[in-house]
Write a structure and sequence with these properties.
The complex is a heterodimer of chains A (561) and B (519). By secondary structure, chain A is of the alpha/beta class. Chain A contains 29 helices and 14 strands. Helices cover 46% and strands 10% of the residues of chain B. Chain B is built from 21 helices and twelve strands. Chain B has a five-stranded parallel beta sheet, with helices on both faces. Chain B has a four-stranded parallel beta sheet with strand order 5-4-6-7, sandwiched between helices. In chain B, strands 2-1-3 form a three-stranded parallel beta sheet, with helices on both faces. The chains are: A alpha/beta (561), B alpha/beta (519). The A-B interface holds A 76-77, 79, 81-84, 86, 206, 410, 422, 424, 442-443, 445-448, 451-452, 456-459 and B 325-326, 329, 332-333, 336, 342-343, 348, 351-352, 355-356, 358-359, 362-363, 366-367, 387-390, 416-418, 508-509, 512-514, 516-519.
């Protein structure tokens, strides 16, 4: 396992990540993801992350080496779309049993690889390590190597057993496997100055296909998409691209950065969510390609396409304006990250109450990304009864959220629209934004909300939980208003850093005692923001409020008003 | 020959063999004077046009593919719901065979019913002798507790007087004088099966309440706290009545179910043939006169019966086959208001679960267009549920729907923004529906088994809700009433929607990029 832990250390050392680069050596070693807490409800494991990242490669046989649990639960569980082979949807597993646990499962794995190659003849087999064989010591690297030599086929070990960390780490380990074993192993039939890699795009709901026609029209060739609707060979020769776009935030940043290092392929982080972001991304693609030798006239053609598509999209959104008149949106999401989604919603006439930021400058975009980066924390900050109160006070008509918050929205009797990965509609590109607006319209006007909001008609409305909760909130507010000591204690007890469970009071005291002026200072004194780092914005807020302690406006509360 | 004794093919396979294919093609070519296929195709396409629709809707005399059945069918439905009761149909034998097979095909149960087997001489001289012999034989052979007499057209055309005939039969000793023989005139040339249901229900109640055709004193009503519940003609009667009994039980409501067919059409297979099973006891039927109120689940099934109950001093309430949250709320609250029994938390939770299920998946139904046909009350119940889900019941058609019914459907449309582009078609048939589906297409069709031809012709997927459902099994065992029933209807609709998505995405390497396991 030493090589695996070395890989993990290397992954954590990610100079391409701004946040990571500012951390101290010790902090960096701890890793960039939230440490899992025993007893807490956590997301997926590293295996899941690796599988999710690579599963969209359509012509590869994805073989899971482990007991039925791992493939049984992950088989075909994401809506990635394939334009060709459906082999990726076939569930291959060694389905190991007690004997394999006792005597080792390497032979079974080897035979399984053999049978796949004999019966399916895929261009490559990806072998996923899981917890059990990793613990019993099955050396999948060795098995893969032997199989590769014997059968003359790429057999790629994906060493990301569940226990090494969370999903996000698995994404990166999957990327490492591609870097180590796949990328650069084959050559394309030909190359053009317009060859582009798209990294970290999974073609969920066929989203990529909403953008690809524009790229085709511009003569930009997607040499390889890692991994949505991807082919093994495309990944293998992706090192010949001229430029790369990194889509899914930081999940595969290691791939983009190392390809830049190794093959000189420049990349930018972009998004096709939102009209403005789509345009920005097209411009960036053009700029990078032209820098690498494409004809500069490409830029003019890009501008023409942008002008045409933007006009079309805005025109398609326009009819919704009267229907959205006076409708307010609460945006709680980590999935569709771009601030330009917000711009599109505003253009459609929706009022955003999820943030006090109304303009869409570069800086604002960054700020929204910070605030909205991790929906779980947003939701921690806002209880169902608070959400219900917002709804009751007509402060929000709909919530755009990730799958995790849908249940809270339902409890708060608030209409919601799922805009994260598990949705069934494609929101990417110009048409995608129109679809999003259409879906919001549908959600807003779904009569189901009538039923969800209303208690059973025979119920005494003064006795249901909503009424009780509101009364309780009012009572608490009154009590706090009457008792400044209690109010102060309440204010100080508000959690700022959810990862490390650090509250306002602790941070304020640390600032006071140590005369701190930077988030780094607060971090070393209290360990706040050393987890996911998302709360550094809030800590900055506290710092800026010093020395005079004032009632804190945590971002979400600002957002809520 | 493709057929051989070792491997016998049934019709699904057999006639696809080359021998048969050739034979059929030859027959067509040589003997059927076939038209030019291009001309056939032209006419087929023309029949899909607005022009054809106009001619179709101008039809005056001809009914094509009616969505209704006859009065006597409804009469038999009502009669078998009473304890030990055999329906006795005064008229021709063939009709009775129809009712029995109709119910057997729907409920997959034997359905007992006898006839007076009128023949030509009876048609000429009257059916009195058939009645006398028929009642005597029925009484002797099947040992019923009650014989409920209804009629077919034949007896009605010659004007047989049931009251007098039954009296004479009793005098002649066919059955004991105090044996219960309620009756109702149920000609098929008036109304439909829902009228027949109403007439027999009224006839039986009148018999017990109003002095058994002059042979006993009228019952004096001594009001109590019980209520009467009438389900109406309902293809889901097995599941629905059981669900209603459960709802009443958890509410603590004492109710007489008039009538309860849930056992006779769902008998266990344990080696015993049950000609009669369950049903409302004759005693309870008589005592139902004392009830505080009579509630009908199907207004247009019970117009005369409810009037009778009202005349006996009952509070009456009528619903339109309530399906879904709001309709079930109304039903339960009315029961609660009448009986003074609170709706318990248990039902509030069931309600919450239905709301939850709707919230989970209504996005798939919201905005979809549906065509519905069936009995008037069922149409109303389903249309209300669809509006609740944000769907548009674009075409609502009942061959046995009246003008008053149409007005009620229109009022329902007017109550929801989703009803804005919806239309109601009283008195129209399934050939009209065919034109509607071609000229104003919808996403799904809701109807009985006969809708499968429309599904095939127009490509509109059929969701089977209604009566009869011959080609799918056992759906009648699941309720469509109550919150649980609403959930069943929701699932039935969703299943079809998802099946269609799968069907439209299952071509390998062509559309199957969306052949997803998660929907």
């Amino acid at each position: 396992m030493s090589s695996l832990s070395a890989t993990i250390q290397a992954v954590f050392n990610e100079p391409g990540c701004g946040k990571n680069a500012t951390k101290s050596e010790a902090e960096r070693k701890k890793g960039c993801t939230k440490q899992l807490q025993p007893g807490g409800a956590a997301g997926g494991c590293a295996f899941d992350g690796a599988k999710i990242a690579l599963q969209p490669l359509t012509d590869v046989a994805h073989l899971v080496h482990g007991p039925i649990a791992c493939e049984g639960n992950s088989w075909d569980n994401r809506g990635a779309k394939s334009s060709g082979s459906n082999l990726w949807r076939t569930g291959f597993t060694t389905d190991i049993n007690e004997t394999d646990v006792v005597f080792g499962g390497e032979k079974r794995l080897y035979k399984a690889i053999k049978e796949i190659i004999e019966k399916y003849d895929p261009p490559a087999v990806f072998v996923y390590q899981t917890c059990v064989p990793a613990m019993t010591g099955d050396d999948i690297n060795a098995v893969c190597k032997a199989a590769k030599e014997k059968f003359g086929k790429p057999v790629i070990p994906i060493n990301s057993p569940g226990f090494v960390g969370p999903k996000n780490l698995g994404n990166k380990l999957a990327g490492e496997a591609l870097l180590d074993y796949v990328i650069g192993t084959e050559e394309p039939d030909y190359t053009t100055p317009y060859d582009l890699n798209i990294i970290g795009e999974y073609n969920l709901s066929g989203e990529l296909w909403q953008v690809k026609p524009l790229l085709d029209e511009l003569g930009i060739r997607v040499l390889s998409c890692i991994s949505g609707d991807g082919r093994y060979r495309e990944v293998a020769y992706s090192h010949r691209a001229r430029a790369a776009m990194m889509v899914c935030s930081k999940a595969m940043i290691n791939v983009a950065r190392k390809m830049e290092e190794r093959y000189g392929i420049p990349f930018f982080e972009g998004s096709f969510y939102g009209i403005e972001d789509s345009s920005d991304s097209l411009r960036e693609i053009g700029r990078l390609l032209v820098e690498r030798g494409a004809d500069a006239e490409l830029l003019d053609r890009i501008e023409l396409v942008i002008a045409r598509e933007e006009a079309k999209a805005w025109a398609a959104i326009a009819p919704y304006k009267p229907r959205f008149q006076g409708k307010k949106v609460l945006l709680i999401t980590g999935g569709v990250k771009s601030w330009s989604v917000v711009a599109a919603l505003q253009e459609a006439g929706l009022e955003l109450v999820g943030t006090s930021v109304k303009k869409s400058t570069r800086e604002d975009k960054e700020r929204i990304k910070e605030i909205m980066g991790q929906d779980a924390h947003m939701i921690d900050d806002m209880t169902p009864r608070e959400m219900y109160k917002m709804l009751k006070d007509a402060k929000a008509d709909i919530m755009l959220s990730g799958g995790r918050s849908q249940f809270i929205a339902l409890k708060a009797s608030m209409p919601w629209l799922d805009i994260n990965q598990e949705r069934h509609h494609a929101y990417m590109g110009y048409v995608g934004m129109v679809e999003l607006v259409r879906q919001i319209d549908k959600a807003l006007y779904n009569p189901m909300w009538e039923q969800v909001r209303k208690p059973a008609p025979w119920e005494d409305p003064s006795k249901n939980w909503q009424a009780t909760a509101l009364a309780q909130m009012d009572a608490e507010a009154t009590a706090l208003a009457a008792d400044p000591v209690k109010a102060e204690a309440k204010r100080r007890s508000k959690i700022v850093c959810n990862c490390k469970k650090v509250d306002v009071g602790t941070i304020e005291d640390a600032i006071q005692v140590n005369s701190l002026t930077t988030t780094e200072g607060v971090l070393s004194a209290t360990s706040a923001s050393s987890g996911c780092g998302i709360c550094s914005v809030r800590i900055e807020g506290i710092l800026s409020a010093f020395p005079v302690p004032q009632p804190l406006h945590a971002p979400i509360q600002v957002a809520a008003e | 020959m493709p057929q051989n004794a070792d491997h016998v093919l049934d019709h699904l396979e057999l006639f696809r063999g080359p021998e048969y294919q050739q034979m059929l093609a030859e027959k067509k070519r040589l003997f059927e004077n076939p038209k030019d296929p291009a001309e056939v195709e032209r006419i087929r396409e023309w029949a899909k046009t607005p022009e054809y629709r106009e001619k179709n809707f101008a039809r005056e005399a001809l009914t094509v593919n009616p969505a209704k059945a006859c009065q006597p069918l409804g009469a038999v439905f009502a009669a078998v719901g009473f304890e030990g009761t055999i329906p006795f149909v005064h008229g021709s034998q063939g009709c009775v065979a129809y009712y029995r097979s109709h119910f057997s095909r729907h409920f997959k149960e034997p359905s007992s019913c006898v006839s007076s087997s009128m023949t030509e001489d009876a048609a000429v001289f009257g059916g009195l002798n058939n009645m006398i012999d028929g009642l005597a034989n029925t009484y002797a052979m099947y040992k019923p507790k009650m014989i409920a007499v209804s009629t077919t057209c034949m007896a009605e055309v010659i004007g047989d007087d049931l009251n007098a005939f039954i009296k004479t039969s009793k005098e002649k000793g066919s059955v004991p004088a105090d044996f219960d023989v309620p009756f109702a005139h149920t000609p098929a040339f008036v109304g439909s099966h829902i009228t027949g249901y109403d007439n027999v229900m009224k006839g039986i109640l009148e018999h017990f309440w109003d002095g058994k055709a002059g042979t006993a004193p009228k019952l004096e009503r001594q009001p109590n706290e019980k209520i009467n519940f009438i389900g109406g003609f309902d293809g889901y009667t097995v599941g629905n009545i059981r669900e209603i009994k459960r709802l009443f039980q958890v509410m603590g409501v004492e109710a007489t179910i008039l009538c309860d067919n849930s056992d006779v059409w769902d008998t266990p297979t344990d080696g015993e043939f049950r000609m009669y099973d369950g049903g409302t006891t004759l005693e309870d039927t008589a005592n139902a006169v004392h009830a505080k109120a009579t509630i009908s689940m199907q207004e247009y099934c019970t117009e005369k019966t409810l009037a009778l109950a009202a005349n006996h001093g009952h509070q009456v309430a009528a619903f339109n086959h309530p399906v879904g949250v709001t309709s079930t709320d109304r039903f339960l609250m009315e029961v609660s208001r009448i009986t003074g029994k609170a709706i318990p938390e248990e039902l509030a939770r069931e309600r919450g679960r239905l709301v939850d299920a709707i919230a989970d998946s209504s996005a798939h139904i919201h905005g979809k267009k549906f065509a519905i046909y069936g009995d008037p009350d069922l149409c109303l119940g389903l249309a209300a549920f669809l509006l609740e889900l944000g769907a548009e019941p674009t075409h609502v058609l009942a061959t046995n729907g009246s003008k008053a019914w149409a007005e009620k459907v229109q009022a329902l449309f007017n109550s929801s923004p989703f009803g804005a582009n919806c239309h109601v078609y009283p008195g129209k048939d399934l050939w009209h529906m065919r034109s509607l589906l071609f000229t104003e297409p919808v996403d799904f069709l809701i109807g009985n088994t006969y809708g499968k031809y429309l599904e095939r012709d127009t490509g509109t997927p059929l969701i089977r809700i209604g009566f009869p459902v011959f080609d799918r099994h056992h759906h009648h065992r699941y309720p469509v009433w109550g919150y649980q029933g609403g959930l069943n209807v929701l699932v039935t609709i969703l299943d079809k929607i998802f099946d269609e998505i799968d069907k439209n995405t299952n071509v390998p390497s062509k559309t199957d990029y969306s052949f997803d396991i998660i929907r």
